[in-house]
């Protein structure tokens, strides 16, 4: 297994609090845009998290009052206009690989959104397991604004499942901002909180999850993602097999013995 607590990334901020990792994107003066390098480093970090036994949850936080302004106009969009098809496909596959890595990292991810979360920034929130936001959050899948299709980094597959086909279609065709109130009402955001409480609330959610049976949490995350493409009978069978695996863990036995002793179980993730 890999230890991630000593990670020192170059292109984003990383810190740990117990078994919870906190990520903030860099350059708050530019509303934290992504670059070729930060895309790749985030992708590699989430790939490595799959093998990390010292991180149990990840919290994506805003920086300087904003979450992320998407791909940097000068560092990404400008250079893309001069690339050939092979190079362009290499880039779009890399950005999609970030989403795949987030989905497959085995760790619950909480996005805490304030201010702007647009383009790839909106995608990062979409690929998270849980989303909370401040009333000032503005979320936009604005690819059409730069002459591109709304089908970017899995948006046409994932967004309709979160907020419904018609609402997703409107956002992806128009590129308009989804207000925080709309996001909560539509089920995109789990809840809205004051800006002063955003990080605290996100860390409380992460702490509560991290205190649970973390091997079982990784199974839950896997099934939440895999069952999108399953029929009901396949899903029920897959869950039967997954739960049988979890019943072999020590955490399952710990929970039973704690219940018998009328105590709160202390899970260790094995």
What is the arithmetic mean of pLDDT? 95
Distance between the termini: 14 Å
What is the H/E string?
Answer: EEHEHHEEHEEHHEHEHHHH
- The fold-level CATH name of the largest domain is 2-enoyl-CoA Hydratase, Chain A, domain 1
Strand content: 5-15%
Shape: globular
Structural class, please? Answer: alpha/beta
**pLDDT < 50 runs, ≥5 residues:** none
Describe the structure.
The protein is an alpha/beta fold and 270 residues long. It is globular. The model has no long low-confidence stretch (mean pLDDT 95). A six-stranded mixed β-sheet has the order 1-2-3-4-6-9, with helices on both faces. Strands 5-7-8 form a three-stranded mixed β-sheet. It starts with 11 loop residues before the first strand and ends in a 10-residue tail after the last helix. The chain folds into two domains: 12-210, 2-enoyl-CoA Hydratase, Chain A, domain 1 (Alpha-Beta Complex), CATH 3.90.226.10; 214-260. α5 (155-163) packs across α6 (165-174) and α9 runs antiparallel to α10. Helices cover 47% and strands 14% of the residues. It is built from eleven helices and nine strands. A hairpin with a 2-residue loop joins β1 and β2.
């Amino acid at each position: 297994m890999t230890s991630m607590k000593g990670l020192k990334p170059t292109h984003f901020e990383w810190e740990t609090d117990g078994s919870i990792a906190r990520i903030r994107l860099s350059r708050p003066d530019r509303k934290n845009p992504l670059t070729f390098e930060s895309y790749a480093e985030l992708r590699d970090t989430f790939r490595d998290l799959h093998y990390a036994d010292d991180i149990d949850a990840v919290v994506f936080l805003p920086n300087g009052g904003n979450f992320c302004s998407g791909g940097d106009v000068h560092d990404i969009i400008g250079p893309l206009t001069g690339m050939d098809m092979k190079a362009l496909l290499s880039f779009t596959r890399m950005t999609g690989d970030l989403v795949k890595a987030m989905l497959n990292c085995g760790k619950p991810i909480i996005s805490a959104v304030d201010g702007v979360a647009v383009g790839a920034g909106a995608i990062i929130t979409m690929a998270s397991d849980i989303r909370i936001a401040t009333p000032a959050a503005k979320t936009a899948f604005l690819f059409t604004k730069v002459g591109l299709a709304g089908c970017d980094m899995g948006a046409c597959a994932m967004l309709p499942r979160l907020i419904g086909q018609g609402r997703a279609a409107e956002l992806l065709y128009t590129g308009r901002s989804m207000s925080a109130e709309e996001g909560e009402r539509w089920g995109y955001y789990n809840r809205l909180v004051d800006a002063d409480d955003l990080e605290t609330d996100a860390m409380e959610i992460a702490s509560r999850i991290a205190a649970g049976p973390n091997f079982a949490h990784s199974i839950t995350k896997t099934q939440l993602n895999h069952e999108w493409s399953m029929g009901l009978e396949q899903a029920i069978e897959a869950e039967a097999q997954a739960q049988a695996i979890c019943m072999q863990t020590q955490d399952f036995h710990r929970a039973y013995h704690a219940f018998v002793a009328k105590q709160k179980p202390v899970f260790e993730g094995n």
